[in-house]
């Protein structure tokens, strides 16, 4: 083998250039790459000038204290003003900002005028509750307009928010409150999930009882269920509604903390990823404008993420609103009241830009083509994907079945830490290969390196690194500078190490191969789980697959595959054999799974990422490790039960 750190196995020759009509009208043209490479910092300064600055910046980047960056030094701005007020001031107050749709079917449109009033009132309420600039506010809320208002109100008064996904436990909430020393928690009585009311307040009470830093709890009435009540609690409608709707936004330093967002690390302790104001908003809005090609006067945008994840922060709240979006906000699950809810939403709202995750796409493939087929999806003009590698067959399905064969797909690679999209096609420029995020955006530097940190040439696999600081980069881990350096900047001190494996194909397109912790070692070949999974998903009977390496006396590790069949396919004899042969054909005999197990569900985190660690436990017949972060802990019992029937190949 060459000095590559990861084998480069799968080949993909299909190429989808942008439709000419799309390219002609695209916000981002190919010349942007040249402009950015001629003057990278000048390019970012130009993007920053799309925002309103109360005081101009005097320096684009200060990297003298690397890896702690300062962007747009000396500049002052108010993030909430940029996302709301300035659109009202430019005459767009009656444009709808949020088209909210609750799971039970209730609807509410919020114009920019209304959003401005709501944010001002909420900001005044936070001030009355004693929140000052710099104080941390925890937000534990369903996907309702008040959640977005709460985030913007915090931004408006300079109080960094820490949004905690409302599906997390009381203990997860408590540990995040404690780490950030939050003084206020904003929550709701409950949320609608799968047709029933899921209370939120009890978890908040349990967390806050054990959190001495918290002084008050602000509660939105959403579901109307009975809630336990304490002296520290105050109803949103009691305090927010009576506030003045005028509030003068304060200009904050470009590096003022905007939010902390916790993400899991390799150790148990969650990492509080810190983002600041000017650089973050610059890159979030730039990427939203150029990657999603937003036309504020005509597009209806829908990102299906939850505000509990970074995608909700950057591509529901900050990027889109800074660009004067009109967007759908949906509270519930895709299968309520029926499994075509998303297609129904797209049809009724005439959604033009749709951004979702591969895990959702594969689930929709499993549910079958008839569901989207029942709906008119012709309003769509652009599709996006984020969160995991998208398997080429899932990409093709997305393009054909959802996009009607005419929508460009942007496969966007980024992380909580990067704050905004880093590697992605530009939809009017890039000829896309299904499954590849293609190349770094203008102004972004990325490379694939080997163990020694040497950049690899085309045709090789290794580790994905970022070679230049970028505006929306994390500014550190809350309260733990050393952990920031150790985690991201120590393996190769000159690079940010993302933790992902990747390969460069013959044309230099980047293929992200998943977390390097997931790499398998079969007879000395380091094989990415993603490639074997993609090979399996390219079989017409397979909807989704998860692959792990289990210890093997002969080969070091053997490949064990967990496979979900497409809708309508029977779990018949001989399927495992058929799939093995298929992988051998697609990749080579080295990648043939030792065992294949047909399952109904896969263990996933609440943000939809497959938890291969648990599947490894099953494959190696170990007791299961920590299952508390699983979206549905019961799936592991089913999978473990089936393992005994998965016979090794003879
Ligand atoms: C993975 C989500 C392949 C990757 C925005 C990354 C992807 C991690 C892609 C970050 C993609 C995200 N192709 N892999 N398009 N997008 N990932 O912090 O492993 O929840 O490191 O941020 O998701 O996940 P996070």
Description:
- With 650 residues, this protein is α/β, with parallel strands linked by helices.
- It folds into 3 domains: 25-78 and 253-443 and 463-494, 3-Layer(aba) Sandwich (Rossmann fold), CATH 3.40.50; 108-250, 3-Layer(aba) Sandwich (Rossmann fold), CATH 3.40.50; 523-643, 2-Layer Sandwich (GMP Synthetase, Chain A, domain 3), CATH 3.30.300.30.
- Helix content is 30%, strand content 22%.
- It is built from 20 helices and 30 strands.
- It has an 8-stranded mixed sheet with strand order 12-11-8-6-7-14-15-23, with helices on both faces. Strands 5-4-17-16-18-19-20 form a 7-stranded mixed sheet, sandwiched between helices. The chain has a 4-stranded antiparallel sheet with strand order 21-22-24-25.
- The radius of gyration is 24 Å and the shape is globular.
- The relative contact order is 0.11.
- The model has no long low-confidence stretch (mean pLDDT 93).
Q: What layout of secondary structure does this protein have?
A:
Blueprint lengths: L19 H6 L5 H8 L1 H9 L10 E4 L7 E4 L2 E2 L1 H14 L3 E6 L5 E5 H17 L8 E4 L4 H13 L3 E3 L6 H11 L3 E5 L1 E4 L2 E4 L1 H9 L6 E5 L12 E3 H4 L12 E2 L3 E7 L7 E6 L1 H14 L9 E3 L6 H13 L4 E4 L10 H9 L3 E4 L1 H10 L2 H4 L8 E4 L6 H11 L6 E3 L34 E4 L11 E6 L9 E2 L3 H8 L7 E9 L5 E6 L4 E3 L2 E3 L1 H9 L4 E11 L3 E10 L9 H12 L8 E4 L13 H8 L15 H9 L7
Parallel strand pairs: 4-17, 6-7, 6-8, 7-14, 8-11, 11-12, 16-17, 16-18, 18-19, 19-20, 29-30
Antiparallel strand pairs: 1-2, 3-13, 4-5, 9-10, 14-15, 15-23, 21-22, 22-24, 24-25, 26-27, 28-29
5'-O-[(S)-ethoxy(hydroxy)phosphoryl]adenosine (WTA) binds next to helix 11, strand 24 and strand 25.
């Amino acid at each position: 083998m060459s000095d590559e750190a990861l084998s480069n196995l799968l080949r993909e020759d299909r190429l989808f250039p942008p439709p000419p009509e799309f390219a002609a009208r695209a916000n981002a043209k190919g010349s942007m790459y040249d402009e950015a490479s001629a003057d990278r910092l000048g390019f970012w300064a130009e993007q920053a000038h799309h925002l309103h600055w109360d005081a101009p910046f005097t320096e684009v980047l200060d990297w003298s204290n690397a890896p702690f960056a300062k962007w747009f030094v000396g500049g002052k701005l108010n993030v909430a003003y940029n996302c709301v007020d300035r659109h009202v001031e430019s005459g767009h107050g009656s444009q709808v900002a949020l088209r909210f749709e609750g799971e039970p079917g209730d609807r509410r449109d919020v114009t920019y005028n209304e959003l401005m009033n709501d944010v001002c009132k909420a900001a005044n309420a936070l001030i009355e509750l004693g929140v000052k600039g710099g104080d941390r506010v925890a937000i534990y809320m369903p996907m309702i307009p008040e959640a977005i208002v709460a985030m913007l109100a915090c931004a408006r008064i300079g109080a960094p928010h820490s949004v905690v996904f409302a599906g997390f436990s009381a203990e997860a909430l408590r540990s995040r409150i404690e780490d950030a020393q939050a003084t206020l928690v904003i929550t709701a009585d409950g949320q609608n999930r799968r047709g029933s009311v899921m209370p939120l307040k009890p978890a908040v009470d349990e967390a806050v009882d054990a959190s001495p830093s918290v002084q008050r709890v602000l509660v939105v009435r959403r579901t109307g269920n009975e809630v336990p009540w304490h002296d520290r609690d105050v109803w949103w409608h009691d305090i927010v509604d009576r506030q003045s709707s005028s509030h003068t936004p304060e200009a904050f330093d470009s590096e003022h903390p905007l939010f902390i967002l916790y993400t899991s690390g390799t150790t148990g302790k969650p990492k509080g990823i810190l983002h600041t104001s000017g650089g973050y908003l610059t890159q979030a809005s730039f990427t939203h404008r150029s990657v999603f090609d937003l036309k504020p006067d005509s597009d209806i945008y829908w990102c299906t993420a939850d505000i509990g994840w970074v995608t909700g922060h950057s591509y529901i709240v900050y990027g889109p609103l800074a660009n004067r979006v009109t967007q759908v906000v949906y509270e519930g699950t895709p299968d309520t009241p029926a499994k075509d809810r998303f297609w129904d939403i797209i049809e009724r709202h005439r959604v033009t830009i749709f951004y979702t995750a591969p895990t959702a796409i594969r689930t929709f493939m499993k549910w079958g083509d008839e569901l989207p087929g029942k709906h008119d999806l012709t309003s769509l003009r652009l599709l996006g994907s984020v969160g995991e590698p998208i398997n080429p067959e899932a990409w093709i399905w997305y393009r054909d079945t959802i996009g009607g064969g005419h929508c460009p797909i942007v496969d966007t690679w980024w992380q909580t830490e990067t704050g905004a999209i880093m590697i992605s096609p530009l939809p009017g420029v890039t000829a896309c290969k299904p499954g590849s995020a293609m190349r770094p955006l203008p102004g972004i530097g990325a490379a694939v390196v080997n163990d020694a940190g040497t950049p690899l040439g085309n045709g090789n696999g290794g580790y994905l690194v970022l070679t230049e600081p970028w505006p929306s980069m994390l500014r550190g881990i809350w309260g733990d500078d050393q952990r920031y350096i150790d985690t991201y900047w120590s393996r190769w001190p000159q690079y940010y190490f993302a933790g992902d494996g990747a390969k460069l194909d013959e044309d230099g397109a980047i293929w992200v191969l998943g977390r390097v912790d997931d790499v398998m070692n079969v007879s000395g070949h380091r094989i990415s789980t993603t490639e074997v999974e993609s090979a399996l998903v390219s079989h017409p009977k397979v909807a989704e697959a998860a692959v792990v390496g289990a210890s093997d006396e002969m080969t070091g590790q053997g490949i064990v595959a967990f496979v979900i069949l497409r809708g309508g396919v029977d779990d018949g004899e001989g399927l495992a054999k058929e799939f093995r042969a298929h992988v051998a054909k697609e990749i080579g005999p080295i990648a043939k799974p030792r065992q294949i197990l047909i399952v109904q569900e896969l263990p996933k985190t609440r943000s939809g990422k497959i938890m291969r660690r648990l599947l490894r436990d099953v494959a190696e017949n170990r007791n299961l490790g920590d299952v508390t972060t699983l979206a549905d802990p019961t799936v592991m019992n089913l999978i473990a039960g089936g393992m005994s029937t998965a016979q090794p190949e003879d």
